Amino acid sequence: MTLTLLIAIVALATLFLLLRRRRAGTALYAVSLILVLAVGCGPVPAWLLGDLQSPYLARPSVQWGSRNAILLLGAGTAKIPGSGQVEPGIFSYPRLVEAAGLYVDCRRAQTDCKILVSGGDALGQGRAEASVYRDVLVGIGIPSADILVESRSMNTWQNAQFSSAMLKDYGANRVLLVSSGIHLRRGLIYFAHFGVDPTPMRADYLRAVSSWLPLAYNFALADFALHEYIGIARYHLYNAMGWNAARTLPGQA
User: Out of 39, 148, 160, 212, which could bridge 116 as a Cys pair, Cβ 3.0 to 4.6 Å?
Assistant: First the structure.
């Protein structure tokens, strides 16, 4: 996303120079250089990530209810060449660890606990994220009877839409939302739309790297953050245009 913007600015600057509009072309080249340094050296992604993640730095203490749902959102899968085996994607492991740890804490409280894994086969790997993650959770000792699977959703909006109905069927009176720190704000907005008010539990925390030289890693982090902001802006735009599904009031989910 940021790289595409940078290429577009450089291309436009080159076009202006070819048209002998040197002042405009030089100004755009300067803008592209500033963008490379501001993003690649860390300031812009650090600011974007900090704004998204700061509300979730401290993990809240959990007061378990009588029926608890630990909602684990998918973070992709990877299909291994040759074997065709589908495994959790690299960003999913912190979420799996966090969900499993919360389940153990919940069981220690001697109360009813379920992990609801939400995620379809958005990447076309041949298996739904939820199914792949369930196998991993069972493999580390989580009873299969305590794992609920929502395997239709292709994005965060559908995670919220489809999971909310399953939470209602289960009768959860305590819901914990497990996802990446940068993803929680958007996830909470979407789930609130469908009448679910979960406790946010971040599984990871991303930090930009300060560097004198531009790093591709910082460009990737900026893109991750912008993806979240665009998703939030799109939600509010769709609401204003009446394009979103009808909002569910708390208690109706």
Answer: 148
CATH of 59-207, one of 3.40.50.620, 3.60.150.10, 1.10.600.10, 3.30.2130.30: 3.40.50.620
For tokens 């996802």, name the residue: 179
What ranges do the domains of the chain cover? Answer: 2-52+209-231, 59-207
Structure-block tokens of residue 242: 């009446």
Contacts with 179 (C-beta within 8 Å, 6 or more apart), sequence order: 73, 75, 95, 187, 200, 202, 203
- What is the separation of C-alpha 67 from the centre of its chain, rounded to a whole number of angstroms? 25
Scanning the structure block, which residue is given the tokens 């994005």? 155
- State pTM to two decimals: 0.93
Residue range 170-189, pLDDT digits in tens: 999 999 999 999 999 999 99
Check if the beta carbon of residue 137 is closer than 8 Å to that of residue 100: yes
Q: From CA 123, how far away is CA 189, in angstroms rounded? A: 24
